[in-house]
Specification:
- There is one protein chain.
- Helices cover 31% and strands 28% of the residues.
- By secondary structure, it is an alpha+beta fold.
- It has a five-stranded antiparallel sheet. A three-stranded antiparallel sheet has the order 4-6-5.
- The chain is globular.
- The mean pLDDT is 84.
Length: 137
C-alpha cells in the first residue's frame, strides 16, 4: 500500500473517505484515521478513528455513544473485525501534517458509511458553522 507521502508526491488527491493507518500519540500501536472532509489543503479527520470496542467512558455518555459508527469487517479488507468510527471528536489540520508522519493508505469507506460518518461529525457539535460549510458544504 502506498504511504500518504507517495500519494501526495504522485499528485493524487486526498479525498473524503480515505482510510489511513499511522501512529497516535500516547498509543502503543498504529490507529486508523479517516479523512472526513477536504477543503483546499485543509482536512477534517476523525481521531481515535476506528476502534474494535467502544471505550467504557463513551458507553456512559449518550451523546458520545450516538457518534459511534459501526463498520462491518465484511465490507473492508483492512479490518479484522467489526469496528467503530469515533465521530465525537473531529479535528482539522493540513495535508502537510500528514506528510511529516508515516501514514499508510489502507482503502476507502463505502459511500453509505462516509455519509453516516460525516453526518455524525456534524451532529457532534464540535465544528463551527464555518468548518461545517468548509468541509461538508
Amino acid at each position: 500500500m502506498p504511504s500518504i507521502q507517495d500519494l501526495l508526491a504522485s499528485q493524487k488527491p486526498i479525498l473524503p473517505g480515505m482510510v489511513l493507518l499511522g501512529p497516535m500519540s500516547g498509543v502503543d500501536h498504529d490507529k486508523f484515521y479517516i479523512i472526513a472532509g477536504v477543503s483546499g489543503d485543509t482536512i477534517c479527520v476523525c481521531t481515535v478513528l476506528i476502534n474494535s470496542r467502544i471505550h467504557p467512558f463513551i458507553m456512559r455518555n449518550q451523546h458520545l455513544l450516538d457518534r459511534q459508527v459501526m463498520l462491518k469487517a465484511d465490507n473492508y479488507s483492512f479490518l479484522d473485525h467489526d469496528s467503530f468510527v469515533n465521530c465525537a471528536q473531529p479535528v482539522t489540520g493540513t495535508t502537510t501534517a500528514f506528510q511529516t508522519i508515516d501514514f499508510e493508505y489502507k482503502g476507502a469507506l463505502l459511500e453509505q458509511d462516509l455519509i453516516i460518518v460525516r453526518q455524525e461529525i456534524i451532529n457532534s457539535g464540535m465544528l463551527t458553522e464555518e468548518e461545517r460549510q468548509k468541509f461538508f458544504g
